[in-house]
Amino acid sequence: MTLASEPFVIEPQSDMDGPFRMLAGGDRTARQVSFGDGRLDPYAPGPPRHVHKNEDEAFHVIEGVMSFEVDGRRFEAGPGTLVWLPREHPHAFSNLSAEPVYLVGIIVPSGLEGMFEEHARYFSTLTGPPDEGALATISARYGVTILGPSLSGREPAEALAVEHPVGRPRSHP
């Protein structure tokens, strides 16, 4: 199989206008995958609970502890943890801790770059809180359905059995 993309390198960047940034999208990867990163301040909310029709997501936590909810199950992911979020599994994530979080995200296949750009344009026009209906309309154009609010720090997190490198499950703190 021949791919139309060319090899590339993205040098470290310090410009981050919001909590998330696209590093390389489908225009660089022959529409195969998108790469991004995020830096969330302490107690920063993530996106509302949502479900993707067309894309799978993965997050690799580099620093801090990120709270996730997948299929109604809440857990925390610390440094070195990889979280796989297959399409059609409702999920949300937020930084509910007192420390900043840095993570890398991967979306397969690419295609949500347009949604992120539309959201950013919408947010740049706001003088008050966002209209949830407007966000839901933008998201729906890309096969993403908003299901509820962002994660709150009021619900307890539970440990997740994650795969140990040699295949034995271990409990993540």
Architecture overview:
- By secondary structure, the protein is mainly beta.
- It has a single domain (20-148), classed as Jelly Rolls (Sandwich).
- The chain has helices at 113-124, 132-140, and strands at 20-24, 34-40, 50-52, 56-63, 66-70, 73-77, 82-85, 91-94, 101-108, 144-146, 161-163, 169-171.
- The protein is globular.
- Mean pLDDT is 86; it is low at 155-173.
Contiguous uncertain segments of 5+ residues: 155-173
Strand % is 25-35%
Please estimate the helix content.
10-25%
Over the alpha carbons, how many angstroms does the gyration radius reach? 16 Å
Strand tally is 12
CATH overall fold name: Jelly Rolls
Estimate the global geometry from the Cα principal axes.
globular
The level 1 CATH classification is: Mainly Beta
Biggest sheet: strands side by side, in what order?
1-2-9-4-7
How far the N terminus sits from the C terminus, by CA atoms, comes to 42 Å
Mean pLDDT: 86
Q: Give the name of the CATH superfamily.
A: Jelly Rolls
> What's the number of helices?
2
For the sheet with most strands, the description reads:
5 strands, antiparallel
